[in-house]
Design a protein that fits this description.
- This protein is mainly α.
- The protein is 74% helix and 0% strand.
- Helix 1 packs across helix 5, helix 2 crosses helix 3 and helix 3 packs antiparallel against helix 4.
- 26% of the residues are buried.
- Keywords: Cell membrane, Membrane, Transmembrane, Transmembrane helix.
- Belongs to the DoxX family.
Length: 134
Amino acid sequence: MTKNIIVSTIARVVLGILFLAHGIDKLHMGLSNVEAWFDSIGVPGVFAYAVAIIELVGGVMLIMGIFTRYVSAMFVMVLLGAIFTAKPSVGLLGNGQMAGYELDLSFIIISMYLIVAERSPLSLDYLFRRKRDA
């Protein structure tokens, strides 16, 4: 295995864990509370459910290495939505009450890397591709 494969595998698994944790956090807060918060910032509340599902399911899929490129692309869209709807008023580093969008930018860069990175042999994507090519 090359260093790039090792790093992309670590990045994929860690990003998956972090998104899974964010999705679980939304469940613990209560999706109705998240929906109300989305409504309060001018985003239709139904998006709270979509974001929670993307974070939960997408996080698990990244950890396992399933549809990595597609999940990563969805994460980029969710993160850009967060930056442009929830974070403009708090800025890059936050305002003391809410985090800024520095972490979102980092997650976007990692997700973009995973979109173009070589498939890791430690993923189900790789396994399925090998079976299909055989």
